[in-house]
Each structure stands twice: as structure tokens, then as C-alpha cells.
Amino acid sequence: MTEYERWLGMELDDPDLTEELNRIQGNSEEINDRFYRNLEFGTGGLRGVIGAGTNRMNVYTVRKATQGLANYLKKHGGKSVAIAYDSRIKSDVFAKQSAAVLAANGIQAHIYPWLSPTPTLSYAVRYLKCDAGICITASHNPAKYNGYKAYGSDGCQITLEMADEVLSEINHLDIFHDVKKMDFDEGVKQGLINPIEDKVIDSFLDEVMKQSVLQGDCTGLKVVYTPLNGTGRVCVTRILDRIGVKDVTVVPEQEFPDGNFPTCPFPNPEIKEALQKGLDLCAKLQPDLLLATDPDCDRCGIAVNQNGEFVLMSGNEVGVLLLDFIARSRIQRGDLPKNPVAVSTIVSTDMTEPVAKEYGIQLVKVLTGFKYIGDQIALLEEKGEEDRYIFGFEESYGYLSGGYVRDKDAVDASMLICQMAYDYKQKGMTLVDAMKALYEKHGYYRNDLMNFGFEGEDGMIKMNSIMDSLRKNAPAAIAGFKVIGWSDYDTSRRYDGSEEREITLPKSNVLEYRLENGNKLIVRPSGTEPKIKIYLSGKGATQEASEKIIEALRADVPQLLGI
User: One of 139, 329, 348, 401 is an active-site residue; which one?
Assistant: First the structure.
């Protein structure tokens, strides 16, 4: 309440904040939700609801975070930062305010003069040899959210060590009095703020093209594409044109940037409702493929024309298909590297294992978050072996086939998916047919995801209580399947049924239960949203058997969580 009163008494730069503070006067619950904590800064930066308060995304929390980053950079000799932003509400404002704070600290800010995909920010950091990067985006969250992703000089999202140091700097700052400011236009005038030139995007697209695995173009493939009112339209349509996909129709209601996302309240290509406008258009045009990218164009979802009906494919299915397609195509082309490496995450499908084994690919499993995949590319680069990396993906629709960026890239994914669809079309197959063939070869791996939301302070307490309870009262069986092993990534301990061993991955608040017959369940609080995610994995002799396993696991989850 003291902090609320202080904000209320300040002459704020953003009149929207003053109006909001006045509107919630006398409402202790609304005040508490905005001021009970500082918006958490971690390896994913900041993410939260746009609005007034320390637990909201606004110009003050953004400036404070940037001042903390600036203090860190000055201590470590950093001199320049690249900045990008997406189509969300106030993204351009937050990006310019970040640039202005950096300029006031004598740090060069290179900012895209138009909204840009997240992977182009990762690329610009390395291209411009910057010491850090900032991307203003909340990825696929609802319209009320925005976020602030911080990147290191390697183009990866920041490490835990860097996040801790930046957070320490932030915690020593008063949000109003300790942040250096400069007018944006003055920063431009002094040469401290510079626009990122078109040639950076051109170079980025050139690097994406180098990931092409098909010789010749994809003439004859028909595509409907939706950028979901985000940043993808320019880069995706340009790359599709370059690989010969000329028949592309962009969903008109979702073609241009709009942070309100009027036709898809959840602009997430994982969700069917977000793709409905695209599916409606597909019903009329009957393309081979519906392609969708999220607002910051780092995730890509698809629906496939299967005899006139459009079938949505999961991130796990597309990831497995791409791994198989890239390996097979590069073998045919004669350029699959010796000892190739693919990277996936602990919550992604185990079907990657037999596919990798078939092609002699070393499969590395990392924690959830694409920065960990980027770290693996960096480790290979340090040894001069970056060419060994051929593909990385996570189940949440993120894919990357080269080391030119260190984050997931829906521009690269769009190109590869279209090439893959075209390749199978020449064989008289759809991607649905191709997936069925892989299931028949490697086994019916089925995966599912459950989300349980916990809003506000009470929600955070409830989430922590659930995780504590699971650690104290580990289940012996789930849905009738015996627990034969478990992993606690927070304590770095793994039990395989006979003894405990240490997990070498970084600590993370994740619990994994390995069940009999190759089934699995993982519990993970989201790092970017107020919810717990449950990842279900079932493997049966047939598709129907696998789906029955998933249904049984789903039915038992509420009891497991105690909700």
C-alpha cells in the first residue's frame, strides 16, 4: 500500500498508468495484485500484464530492468545493445525507452526501426557484435501481456549467472530516482541510438536460405499463411518466395500487426482457436498446408490437407518429421556431417531417440527453454564443431536447423516445413501420411499437455504448495502405472529404480516420473505464465492403445496435484 501511494503521488510519464491507479483506489485486492512483488527478472527477462505497479509491465519496470542491464554491462566493459520489438501493445514504447536508458548510460543502442521477429534480434546481436540484446515481446501470451527478453553477446537468452547479476543490480535501484533517462530523439541526435539497417534483415534471410535442404524450388505447393497479427509476414513471405512457393494466401484478418489480436485472444499456433480464421480460408481455397507463426515469429504451427480435411499437427510430430526429413535429405545430398548432433528437451517426445539412432545422430536432451539448445550450439562452436549441429526443437512449436541464430526461428521452420511438404507431395504423400509411416516404423508415441492456471499471489502460493507436496509425497503409481524412476531437476537427483544419481543439467523446478512400459509424466511450473504444465507421454502397440494411456494419465492428474 505504501508503494501504491507513492506511485499515486508521482507525476507519471504515462497517463494510462495514472488513470489506472486512480481507478483502483480503495480496492485492496487490485492494489495488492499490482504491488505485492516486483515483476520477476530471470533468464527469460520480464513478462507480465501491461499496467501500473511493480508487478506489471510499464515504462518504469522496463526502464529499471534496462538500468540494471546497463550497470551490469558497464562493469563488464559492454558498449552496445541490439533492440527489437513485436506488435504488442506498447512494445514500440518499451523498446524506445530501453534505448533511451542505454543511451543515457553511454551505451550504444541499435534498434530496429520497425517491428521484427525475435530471431532477427538474436541475429543482430551477433551481426553487429553487440554485448547484449533486448527483445520486447510476450511471445504467444494473451493481448494483456508484454515482456522483455534479454540476450547475451552470443545471441542466446542470458545465462542464469548473468540474470542473477543483472537482478542484483536491479534490486539496488529505486524505480523512480535511480534510473538514468534521455529523450529518444536526443539519443538519435547524439549518435547513441542508431537504426538497424535493412541489410541486417537481408543477411538474416541469406543465412536462413543456407539451411535449405532441397535442390530446386517448391513450385506447385499451395499455402495459406497467418502471422496472427504479429511480426512474421514480411520475413516469412520473402523466404517462401525465395524457395519457389509462389501460391501463398495470407489470412486477411490476421495479416497486419495488431496487439489486440481481435480474432485470436490467445495468439498461439498451438491452439486451434487461434488458427480458426486460417482454417476457414483453407476450407475455401483447399491449399496443401496452413502455416501459422506466433506474434514474435519464433514458433510455427501447421494444419495439413488430408483429403479435404485440415489436420492440426503437434509440435512433437513436426519436430520428429523435420529431424527425419533433414537427416534423410542431407544424406541424399551427401552433406550430413560426421557425428551429427540434434538437440531436444526433456519435455519433448522420446520418439526422437529411435529416429536419431536410425541416422547415427547424437541426441542431446536439455532443459525446457530454447536458450539451452542455443547453449549446445555454442559449446560445439567453441570446439570448432558447429557444423555437427543439424537440428533442434522443443514440443512447444520451436525449431532451428542452423547456428546463425541462438533462438527458435519460425522463418527457418516455415521454409523447412514447406520444403518437407513439397518433397512428400512429389511422392504422393501428405505430412499426415508421412507421420503415420514413422509411427509404424518406430512405435506409437503419443504426447499431450495439460495446463492449470494459478493467477495472483494466492496462485503462486498454490503452485509452490503443489510442488512441495509432490516432493514430500512422491507417488508410487500414476493411473495404475507403476513409477519405476523419477528425476527432480531442482535437487539434481535422479532415481532409476535401484540407485540415485546426480543430474548434470542446471537446476530447474521440474519433476519427472518414469512409468512402466515406456510411459512418462512431467510436472513443470511455467517460467513465463502463472500456470503448471503437465506433460504426458504414452507408448502403445497401436495408436488407439497409446491414446488410451494418455486418457488414463489425464484422468489421474487432478488427483496427483490435489486439485
Answer: 139
